[in-house]
Write a structure and sequence with these properties.
CATH architecture of the largest domain: 3-Layer(aba) Sandwich
Mean pLDDT: 90
Number of helices: 18
Number of strands: 18
Strand content: 15-25%
CATH superfamily of the largest domain: Ribokinase
Number of domains: 2
Largest sheet: 9 strands, mixed
Low-confidence stretches: none
Length: 484
């Protein structure tokens, strides 16, 4: 799962179809009541715009490291042009149809501190024309050919009609592509045949006419809906209780990840974006729900519809899932992704390297000392071919995969990377550590990467070597016949 987040879904494309809107925020301070009416006076400090609705789902996909294509309608107005710039800046490909005479749906929120004071909506109330819906189908036909998952983001603004939903679901399922639905309709029948529908508990309550307080009955009705609508499953967000995964014959609840909640707006988009990428990357739904739960915890700790980044998810996934030793062994690309996440969290990275053939107390002392020089320790090890080039054809005694996993099992080590070259310079240049640690048989001038690390403001640390401990000595002792 960790490797999927790091780089496994970077090549996956998710097609998002639905209601696109502009979320506009006006931030200010409140320190008095208006003399004209009993309302607070907001002293405006700043304003910003963000893609909302289906746009926020697409932005979450891109922010998590996937590729996002967005299809829908917007108007021929200034809000649409603002949205297009925001989407392109967020690495979302907007294949959106401009409809003259329709305003771009815009929600203006007045916020003081972390609380919304007021929301003003600007939107069309009439349906889209048959010509516009025909253009939408053509755009869907073009975009669906290269997608790995489809998200239907329905905010009830007229894009996802019953015919459009059935058309998209049919096309996607023909290609074996998962379809995930964020619903806003009272009747979920238009989503028949989708992989999963992702309502919140209030939306599921409305769709089933069962009160949210009767949770067991509500979830049972969700299971019946899975059968009736020919879904693979239904994934319902239950607020502080987590996410319920409902299948026709089984149910489970992934507990929520405890965080301080500031704003739940946009959390559903984060969940469906994470689920879509996880399924596109080949995860089973149970694992995908677990990952989405972690992402949702990050989303509700933010104010407004702010996408969750891959770095944020990575940093949360590692402690939540309990990183296994095998997951500490990374490729160079995986190391770059992990190091970037660590730096975003303000952590300092230490690097050391060696063959580490027949791990001994001298190695352990070096690694534990190196770990104290920073927040994270990355260990580079020579590949088998690299060791043979340095130490001869009889080495290594232990293969590179085994050496890497033994090192990864140590609590002092955060990541292990194998390199083929005689020196780790390429790894050092990619990682850009804050500290390079080497044993006392080196001087600073003989340490590979010393010049480079000083260039970007890092340092070299030479630590004392434990005398008498080396792999060569261990091998020699093992080869010496015992006295008779």
């Amino acid at each position: 799962m960790l490797r999927l987040v790091e780089s496994g879904w970077s090549s996956k494309r998710v097609l998002v179809i639905g209601d696109i809107m502009l979320d506009r925020y006006t931030w200010g301070d409140v320190d008095r009541i208006s003399p004209e009416a009993p309302v607070p006076v907001v002293r405006v400090m700043h304003q910003n715009d963000r893609p909302g609705g289906a746009g926020n789902a697409a932005m979450n996909i891109a922010s998590l490291g996937g590729k996002a294509t967005l299809v829908g309608f917007w108007g021929d107005d200034a809000e649409a042009y603002s949205l297009e710039i925001l989407l392109r800046d967020g690495s979302v490909e907007p294949n959106i149809i401009r409809v003259k005479g329709y305003p771009t749906t815009t929600k203006l929120r007045i916020v003081s501190g972390k609380q919304q004071m007021l929301r003003l909506d600007r939107e069309a109330v009439n349906e889209f024309t048959p010509a516009a819906l025909s253009d939408l189908r053509h755009q869907i036909d073009s975009s669906i050919q290269t997608t790995d998952a489809v998200v239907l983001s329905d905010y009830g603004k007229g894009v996802l009609t019953e015919d459009v939903c059935r058309y998209v679901i049919g096309k996607a399922r023909q290609r074996g592509v998962p379809v995930l639905v964020d619903p806003k309709q009272r009747n979920f029948a238009r989503y028949r045949g989708a992989t999963t529908i992702c309502p919140n508990v209030a939306e599921l309550s409305i769709a089933t006419s069962i009160p949210t307080k009767d949770l067991d009955e509500l979830l049972a009705a969700g299971q019946q809906m899975v059968r009736d609508l020919n879904l693979d499953c239904l994934t319902a967000t239950l607020s502080e209780k987590g996410i319920a995964l409902l299948r026709a014959e089984s149910r489970s609840i992934a507990p929520a990840v405890a965080r301080q909640v500031f704003d739940v707006s946009g959390a559903g988009d984060t969940v469906i974006a994470t689920l879509a990428l996880a399924l596109a990357g080949g995860l089973h739904m149970e694992a995908a729900v677990q990952l989405a739960n972690i992402a949702a915890g990050i989303a509700v700790s933010k104010v407004g519809t702010v996408p969750v980044s891959r770095d944020e998810l990575l940093l949360s996934v590692m402690p939540e899932l309990g990183i296994q030793s095998a997951e500490k062994v990374v490729t160079l690309d995986g190391l770059r992704a992990r190091a970037h996440a660590w730096r975003q969290a303000g952590e300092h990275i230490t690097f050391t390297n060696g063959c580490f053939d027949l791990l001994h107390i001298g190695h352990i002392t070096l690694l534990e000392t190196a770990r104290r020089e920073g927040d994270r320790l990355v260990v580079g090890i020579n590949s088998d071919s690299s060791v043979r080039g340095l130490k001869g054809q009889t080495r290594p005694i232990v293969g590179e995969c085994e050496r890497a996993q033994i090192l990864a099992s140590l609590s002092a080590v955060d990541a292990v990377v194998i390199f083929d070259e005689p020196t780790p310079l390429r790894v050092i240049e990619a990682l850009r550590p804050d500290v390079i640690v080497k044993g006392g048989d080196y001087t600073e001038d003989t340490v590979v990467g010393a010049k480079e690390i000083r260039y970007w403001g890092g340092r070299v640390k030479i630590v004392p070597t434990l005398e008498g401990f080396s792999t060569t000595n261990i091998i020699a002792k093992a080869m010496t016949p015992e006295p008779k």
